[in-house]
Amino acid sequence: MSRSSIHKSNRVYVAGHTGLVGSAIVRRLENARFERILTVSSGDVDLRCPQQTEDFFCREEPEYVFVAAAHVGGIHANQSYPATFLYDNIMIASNVINSAHKAGVTKLLFLGSSCIYPKHAAQPIKEDSLLTGPLEPTNEPYAIAKIAGVKLCQSYRRQYGCNFISVMPTNLYGPNDNFDLENSHVVPALLRKVHEAKCQDAPFVTLWGTGKAEREFLHVDDLADACFVLMQRYDQSEIINVGSGEVVSIQELAEMIRAIVGFKGLIQTDPSKPDGTMHKRLDSTKCLELGWESKITLDDGLRNLYDALTRDASSVFY
Ligand SMILES: NC(=O)c1ccc[n+]([C@@H]2O[C@H](COP(=O)([O-])OP(=O)(O)OC[C@H]3O[C@@H](n4cnc5c(N)ncnc54)[C@H](OP(=O)(O)O)[C@@H]3O)[C@@H](O)[C@H]2O)c1
Q1: What letter would DSSP give residue 19?
Q2: What is this structure's pTM?
Q3: Which domains does the chain have, with CATH numbers?
């Protein structure tokens, strides 16, 4: 049972509220009728800046914090800007966690990623495989920054008794994702590419890599629900995985998207481009045992997302 039970009257700060994960956590809290959800734009408080971060915590006195602010991107962005991925994410994690400690935050949930696990970790990946082997080189700087965040949570717990937990989600998709073709993850990139190919009547769409790499996908609303449950029920130092168990190859994902979008051309691969880790599936037993389970299938999630994007005249699809 939790040492602290989050209540809808608590002051809850969601760092990164405009992003894929942060916006889903805000929706989840709003659904639960939380009355004091704190958010601030990166323009007003740059979480890479220690003073701005500390001033914000002092001023707003949040009781619970979800850390979904991060500099995030796919393989291309990670390879092009390794220094930015390492620096920004270490600074954000350090500043938010240290400020939360100083401000006496009751509980903090830090979001890591499944990319922190070793490249050749046994599948499905258990939490205790962290730091047992080399990382996937294409996103090593990002992973190192996220591991630093995990270690910060564990160290502040050990040294100061802070109730800070770390959650490792699998690959996510959903509303408010980044659809920039250079910097996005595979689901938004493919939805946009295939949609544009359909509009232009193109003969084919090319996938990065062999298409054989396998990924587990989770709808971000399911993740937000898991974060809400973990904020209520999980108080351990050990990291905890959150996955759907639904694994597909990138080629299969592209075929699903082709069917949903109604694209008549071919999906072809470009094996000269990197695949990243070939297999990635999380063992989410610990989270399942706490009573959470994913509810949105990949097919439903993709279909709803595509429908919403093509209905919204302000989306990148217009
Ligand atoms: N997307 C995935 O597939 C995935 C999978 C596993 C784990 N995660 C984890 O989930 C977390 C959030 O990812 P996401 O996909 O939601 O990212 P996202 O959509 O890119 O959103 C990132 C959020 O962080 C904010 N932010 C970035 N730099 C900031 C700064 N210097 N100061 C203040 N705010 C800043 C952004 O605000 P602005 O828009 O104002 O810049 C935005 O609200 C990350 O820790 C990531 O590791 C994501």
Answers
A1: S
A2: 0.95
A3: 11-177+217-245+281-295 (3.40.50.720)
